[in-house]
Amino acid sequence: MRFEDFINEGKVRVASKDVSLAKSLIKTADNDLKFLGKLKIDDESARKIMVNYYDVLRSIIEAISAIDGYKVYSHEAFTFFLIKKGDNLIAEKFDRFRKIRNKINYYGKNISPEETQENVQDIIKLIAVLKNKYLSNYLVN
Description:
By secondary structure, the protein is mostly helical. The protein contains six helices and two strands; from the N terminus they run αβααβααα.
């Protein structure tokens, strides 16, 4: 599959560059990271915290796609968007987190606090890399 296939299927729409949307997504993601960073990861919270960190990562990728002139309607399409940009390792990690999130949300899978903590650290690093590489000109202070 290629990113262009998602465009042809209507799961991605070519749009105008949307800097205001990107800035809004970045600001929301930053606020969410501050909030999530205050939470304790334990047996009861691990699932929701994992899903919420995934959502922050997805928002950052959505901000990048908005700047590139795409409106993405499929989480899977973000993986192929990253591949198209040459970020194969980040795409692979994002897709792994997407699958974990789907198992939690749609199949009732549990996740341990330890696995969540490890994933959260990875997600925070990915967000920093993506913001530095693609969003440094759009960061909201």
